[in-house]
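User: Please fill in residues for this 338-position structure.
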C-alpha cells in the first residue's frame, strides 16, 4: 500500500543521511556489494524495487561510477532471465535428464564479488544438466567462458520417505550429499567424502546441517552435535516433518572475521592502485612539483580518508619503480620520468 512505500522511502533517506557521514565510501561499497550479491543470488531480497531505489539514491549521492557495478548486477539478473527463456524454448533443453529442470544465473565476473572456487563432484544428473546448459550457452555466445560457482547454487529435491513425499529445498552441496543415499541407506563419512569431493570443513558443515539440525533428513551414528571422520550416516526413514516443502538451512558461516578482513584488504589494495594512478596523473601533467604541493593535490583528487604518511609511502614506491625521481638540486621536489 501507499503507506509502506512512504515508509520505505523514509527508511532509505535515513540510510543515505548516515551514508553521508561515512568517510571510507569504498569500504561501504565493497560490503554493500557483497551483501547485495547474497540477497540477489539466494533470492533473499524483500523487494527488487526497494533495492533499485536505494541504488538510485546512492547514484545521486556519489555519481554513476560508484553504482555502476551494483547496477551491472541487476542487469545480469535480468539478462539471465532472457537466457533461460531462450534455453527452455530451444531444442537443447530436451537433453536435460528426465525430471530435472535447471535455472542458471549468468554473471559478469567484473560486477560481482569474487568467490573462492569450491570443488565438488556433482551427482550425475546435475552434472549432465550443467553440461547441457553449458553447450547451449557456448553455441549461442561463442568466446565466453562459463565457470560454475557451486557454492552459490541451490536445488529442490523430491524425497520419498516411508511417511510420504517431501520437497527439500537445499544447497548444491547438500544435494550432492543427499543424492548419494539413492544408492545406499547408510554411508560412512569416508564414503561420502570420496564420493562428493568436498573439502573437510565444507563437508562437515554440510553433514551437520543434514543430520544435526532441526530438520534431520539423515541420522548420524554415534549421535552428537559435531561431525567426526569416524561417523556413519543413514537415510532417516522415520522422518515426520509436517510441511510438504522444507527448507534445510545451510549452516551459514557467520561473516567471519576472516571474510571481513579479506574485504577490507581488497579495498586497501584497490586504494593503493588509485593513489599511484592519481600521483602519476598529477606528475605527468605538472612534470615537476614539490612534495607539499603533490600531496595537497593528491588529497584533493582522492575520495577516501588518507594520511600524508600513506601518500609518502606510495611516492617512495613510485620513485623505486622509476616513475618519479627526486630533483638533483632539491630532495623535496619530484620530477616526472616519462
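Assistant: Residues filled in for all 338 positions:
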Amino acid at each position: 500500500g501507499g503507506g509502506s512505500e512512504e515508509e520505505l522511502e523514509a527508511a532509505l533517506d535515513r540510510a543515505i543521511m548516515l551514508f553521508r557521514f561515512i568517510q571510507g565510501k569504498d569500504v561501504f561499497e565493497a560490503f554493500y556489494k557483497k551483501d547485495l550479491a547474497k540477497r540477489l543470488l539466494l533470492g533473499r531480497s524483500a523487494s527488487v524495487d526497494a533495492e533499485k531505489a536505494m541504488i538510485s539514491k546512492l547514484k545521486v549521492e556519489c555519481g554513476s561510477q560508484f553504482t555502476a557495478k551494483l547496477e551491472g548486477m541487476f542487469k545480469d539478473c535480468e539478462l539471465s532471465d532472457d537466457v533461460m527463456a531462450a534455453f527452455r524454448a530451444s531444442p537443447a533443453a530436451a537433453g536435460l535428464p528426465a525430471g530435472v529442470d535447471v535455472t542458471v544465473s549468468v554473471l559478469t565476473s567484473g560486477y560481482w564479488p569474487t568467490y573462492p572456487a569450491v570443488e565438488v563432484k556433482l551427482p550425475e544428473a546435475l552434472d549432465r544438466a550443467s553440461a547441457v546448459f553449458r553447450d547451449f550457452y557456448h553455441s549461442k555466445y561463442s568466446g565466453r567462458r562459463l565457470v560454475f560457482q557451486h557454492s552459490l547454487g541451490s536445488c529442490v529435491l523430491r524425497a520419498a520417505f516411508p511417511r510420504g513425499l517431501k520437497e527439500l529445498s537445499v544447497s548444491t552441496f547438500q544435494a550432492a550429499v543427499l543424492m548419494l543415499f539413492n544408492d545406499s541407506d547408510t554411508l560412512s563419512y569416508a564414503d561420502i567424502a570420496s564420493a562428493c569431493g568436498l573439502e573437510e570443513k565444507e563437508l562437515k558443515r554440510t553433514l551437520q546441517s543434514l543430520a544435526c539440525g532441526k530438520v534431520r533428513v539423515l541420522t548420524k551414528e554415534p549421535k552428537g552435535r559435531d561431525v567426526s571422520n569416524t561417523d556413519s550416516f543413514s537415510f532417516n526413514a522415520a522422518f515426520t516433518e509436517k510441511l510438504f516443502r522444507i527448507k534445510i538451512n545451510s549452516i551459514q558461516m557467520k561473516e567471519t572475521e576472516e571474510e571481513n578482513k579479506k574485504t577490507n584488504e581488497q579495498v586497501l589494495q584497490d586504494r593503493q592502485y588509485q593513489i599511484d594512478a592519481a600521483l602519476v596523473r598529477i606528475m605527468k601533467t605538472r612534470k615537476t612539483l614539490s612534495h607539499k604541493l603533490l600531496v595537497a593535490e593528491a588529497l584533493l583528487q582522492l575520495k577516501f580518508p588518507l594520511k600524508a604518511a600513506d601518500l609518502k609511502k606510495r611516492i617512495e614506491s613510485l620513485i623505486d619503480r622509476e616513475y618519479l625521481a627526486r630533483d638533483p638540486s632539491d630532495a623535496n621536489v619530484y620530477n616526472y620520468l616519462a
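For context: The longest strand covers residues 154-161.
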